Amino acid sequence: MTTGGPSFTNQTLRMVVHPSVSGAAARITLSNRYSPQALEIAAVDVAVQASGGAAKPGTTRHVTFGGSGRLTIAAGAERISDAVPIRVEAEQNLLVSLFVPGTTGVSTWHSDAFDTTYTAVGDHTGDVGADAFDTTTTSWYYLAGLDVVSPTAKGTVVAFGDSITDGYHSSTGTYTRWPDFLARRIADRPGPRKLSVVNAGIGGNRVLTDVPNPWQGVSALKRFDHDALGRPGVKDVILLQGINDIGNNAGPEGRPLTAQDLIDGYRTLIDRAHTAGVRLIGATLMPNKGNGYYTPAAEEIRRDVNEWIRTSGAFDGVVDFDLALRDPADPAALDSAYDSGDHIHPDDAGMRAMADAVDLRLLRH
Hints:
alpha+beta, Rossmann fold, seven-stranded antiparallel beta sheet, five-stranded parallel beta sheet
C-alpha cells in the first residue's frame, strides 16, 4: 500500500481478491496507513465472485471488526477483521466490498493492481448483482490483505520487489504475475503441506530511497518490516529489487549510487529478516539493455551486484532470474521470447519463466 490515492464520497468499492490457498474462513486487513485523516467505513461484505462485479448467490458474508460492522480506522493505522466463515478455494476469486459514507480524503491504495475494481454510489455492499457498479478502475483501495484460515497451508512466502513483481505488463485479470505462477507450482507439489504466496511488489519502488512519486512507495528499508516480515505466517521472502535504484542513479543522501550502497541495503534487510526468524532469498537483477535505464555505468553496477548476490553467501538462497531470462547472445538484454517490449519488464511467458527459475527446495514447506 502507498499514499496518494483518490478521495471517495458515499461510495461502495468492490475489489477482487485472488487467493492462493483454500480454507474455511478468512480475515481481511483494511489499511489507512498512508492517509492523513481517519477513515469511516459503514459496511464491509465478502462474497465469492461469479463474474465481473457480480457475486455468487448465497455466498455473501458480512464482515465484522471486534463484533461491529462499522469501524473507524485512525490515520496511519490498520484493522484486521474477525474471521469470516466462508469457503475459500485456491484461485477462486472473492469480492470484498467497502462502503464509505463520508468523504475519505487521500486514500491508502495500491495503484497497479492489474485487476478490476468496481465502484458504485451509495451502499451496495450486499448487492449480488453488479448493476449499480457503473465505474471501474485497476487499483485497490484500503484493502491490504486477505488471510485465509487454512487446514493445509502452514506458512507464507512473500515476493518482495518492484514493478516486475507487481506484475507490470502482465495481462490484467489473468493472474500471470510471477508470484501467481509460483503459487501454482507450490500447489502442484504432492502432499498436504502448502505455502501461500503474498505479492508485496510496488511499481517504481526502490531499496534505499523513497520515490518522488508517492504512489510508488517508501523505500524497501522503510517498508520491509511491515510489508514482508509482518505478513501472517511468513517463513521465506524472495527479494527482487534494486533496478530502480540503479536506473535512477539514486544513492543515499542524494549522491550517485554505487554497488556497495545496494549491497549494504541488502545486508540490512537480511539482518532484519534473520532477527525475525525469516529466511531471505536473494534474486539477481534482470538485464535491461534497450530500456532508458541502461547505460554502461548502470550495467556495471547491475553485474557487480548480481555477482555479490550469487557468491557472497549472505542470502539464505539465490534465485538467478538474470540467468533465466537474459538473451544468451547478448547477456545485457532480455531474451526476446520473454520481453514485453520495453526491454525491462517480462511478458506473461517471461513471468512464467521467472517462477520456473525458483528452486522450490529453497522454501520451507
